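Minutes, project check-in
Item: structure for the 468-residue chain
Input as provided by the requester:
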Amino acid sequence: MHTQSLSQMAAALAKKDISARELTELHLNRISTHNPQLNSFITVTDESALQQADEADRRRAAGDSNPLLGIPLAHQDLFCTQGVRSSSGSKMLDNFVSPYNAHIVEQLNQAGAVSLGKLNMDEFGMGSRGQHSFYGTTQNPWDNSRVVGGAASGSAAAVAAGLVAASTAADTCGDIRIPAAFNGLTGLRPSYGRISRWGLTANASSFDQAGFLTRTAEDAALLLQACAGFDEKDSTSAQLAVPNYQESLSRPLSGVRIGMPKVFFDSSLNTGIADSIQACAKKLQELGAELVDIDLAHQQHAVSIATVISSAEASTNLSRFDGVRFGYRCENPSNLDDLYQRSRTEGFGAEVQRRLLLGAFYLSVEQYEDYYVQAQRLRRLVKQDFTQAFQAVDLILAPVSANMPALVSDNSGCEFEAWRYTAPASLAGLPALALPVGLLDGLPVGAQLIAPAFHEAQLLNAAHQFQQ
């Protein structure tokens, strides 16, 4: 049962082949057995999960047919969860127990999903390897010697290993899509504003977007249906109608134009990955899609732009964690300056400190115009690239990562470089979906589909048709 998709589990629950309590117990047993090695969970909520499962069984017996009723999920630890530690993977918030639920958590609770706990992650969502958590490195279930990808490392590992049917996660510049590609999963980053960010602990506010890691695009559609929509508590939430994502899955791909950006398929892309993506493109063509070569002129600047803006926003967002207002406080400070300095030095990990220092530099009086303002100007050009491209095509097919997962022991290279293919969609606020397209040396290969803003239905349709 644990290898089945969310949709298959929902069908089994509807036919009463298994109860929500039995399904929950099965997954809790798998967590008990496998999590000590994987380190995908920070907190397991056994008792409340069984209570939610019993309530789901009662609701189903009373006639409730919500497809998510009784489905075992877990949440990335940056989503506030009422009565449960919500640490964002950081010592700074190690003892923070949220007094309320994030919007995405509340929506899934109302749908009857069962929360099994909180998932490991790179601290405050800063990392692309899954190695920057206060609670230790998450292991890749495909190969423990390889990185699992970050920042939503626990979310990906838990789904890939069958510890949960699906998981929530947040994507800043690829934090859903990179671990999805490294673990053979479907990872959906919706359009900016499609799902409320209320209760999502901020990293970079103009990038952060709640989404999901699932086995299939059909599963992602079910979760998006439950969580999408306007939320008055979030000023960035879009006031747009929510389409029926399940209905759109079965549409044929005849006439759909899929762009192939030449800038992404150069010599820096692993040839095995390139071949897998080209095979995916050929299959989409066989299904009726038309392949079109496109130019995205400013995408080579995406990593630099995202580095500057996201670091600046993180520096501002995390300034509240100072030992006075929020978070960890050092012992016996000698004065206020000592309190600030030691609380932040002891409470934040090395990667977070590095990005906060970068952000403070970019926002300094001397550097603001040359770095932050210039990056915002270039961001507009990246958005214009996509606007022009989507006049000629309906979707864009691209890689997720230039290489296969690095060895855990290999600390060379800049983590920002992992964003080369994922940062552009984040900069433009576009929906993007990572999906598995093959194996290379026994490890999964992922590709990425990008759609115009709020065209998730078309994104999910193309991915679903390919996955069939």
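Outcome recorded: The first strand starts at residue 41 and ends at 44.
No further action items on this chain.
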